[in-house]
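User: Structure please.
Assistant: Input sequence and predicted structure:
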Amino acid sequence: MIAAPSAAALLADMGADVIKVEPPTGDILRGAHRPIDPSAGPGPHPDGYFTIDNRGKRSIVVDLGTEAGTDVVHRLAARSDVFVTNLTDDRLARYRLRSDDLRDVRQDLVYASLGGYGSVGPLAGKPGYDWTAFFARGGVSSLLGEPDGPPPAFRPGQGDHTTALALLSAILVALRERDRTGQFQRVEVALFQVAAWTLASDLSMSLIDGTQPPKPARAEWPNPLTCRYRCADGRWVALCMPGPRDYWDSFCIAVGRTEWIFDERYADVPTRLGHSAELVAAIDEVIGAEPLEHWASRFDEAGVIWAPVQRLPDVIADPQAEALGVFSTVEDREAGFTFRTVSAPFHVEGAGIAVRGPAPVLGRHGREVLAEAGFGDDEIDALDRAGVIRPADGA
C-alpha cells in the first residue's frame, strides 16, 4: 500500500515521470485515511494517506486480469527506465510481470520489487504489511514499550516509509549500474530485512551473545540521563546524554540540585547507574514540579542535550521544520485548493527536488499515457470499450 508507492513518489519529487498503474477499483489506499477532525473545516480536503505516497504521478487504470491489460503494461515498461512493483509473486507470475518477463521487454530496464519477506526462503512471496513483516516479525515491536506490557501499537506507514528509502537507494544504485553496463538490473527490498537494518545496533550485539536485549521499565531506566520525564503541564522531555562527556554537573545545575554533584552515590557514571531507580524517581519529582517552558530555558542555558516530546501539531509549527523545508505547499488546481504535505527527507544542492503536484485522480491520464507509448486512437478506444482501461482521461 505504501512502501513501493512512496519510493516512486520520491522519484517523482526528483523529476521522474512516474506512471501509476491501478486496477479498475483503484489503489486500496485511496480514501483509507483516518477521519478528518471537524476543526479543519468543511473542505474540500486532500486524501491524506494516498496523496503523500502518490503525489506528482500520472494515473492509468489497467485491468491486469486480461491479456490485453498485461500487454499494455509491457508496452509501458518498454519505454520506461524503472519498473516498480509490490505485487506478490503469484500475481507477478499470473500477469507475466516477473523480472524475466520484463527482461524480454526491455534489456536495460531497472526492475524493482518490494515485498514483505523477499522472493527466497521459507516465507518467499508471503504477503505482509509493515505491522507484520517490519514491526512484528522484524523484531521492532519486541523492544518497545514497558517490560510486561503488550506490543505497542504501530503508526501507519512508519516501517513502509523507512523501507521506501531503502528501495529508493537501491533503485538509484541500479540506475547508475545500468548506465555503466547497459544491462538489466533487478532490485529487491523486503520490509523484514529493512527492519533488521533499523535494529542493527541491537542485532550486532545479539549476533554475538544470542540474547534478547533487556527492556527496562522507565522507572528502572539504567541511565537517568537517557530517560523521559513528565513536566507539571503533562508534557514530556527526553534526555539523551550517554557520554563520553559526563553532563551530570550541567544537568544538576539545570534542575537546581547542585548537592547531587557532591553526593558520593552519584560521583561518576558507573556509580550513578547503580542508583538509577532512585535517581529516576528523584528527577521525576523535580521535573514534575514545573512546566515544559520552565525546563526548556534552563536545559538550553546549561547545555543539556534534550528535546520536548512533541505532538504532531507542535512538529508542524516547529521553526526548525520551517527552516529545513520539512513541509511543502501544493496547489491542486483541479480540486481548487492548496494543501501542505511532507517533503522528501533530504536535500541535494542544485537538484531541484520538490513536490511536483498532487496525487492523480484515478485514471486521469490514461489516454495521454497510452498515446505517448505509441497506442493509436483506435487502439485506445478499443481498450476502453473492452474495459481493459478506464475511460479516457478519467471521464
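Residues 158-181 form the longest helix (24 residues).
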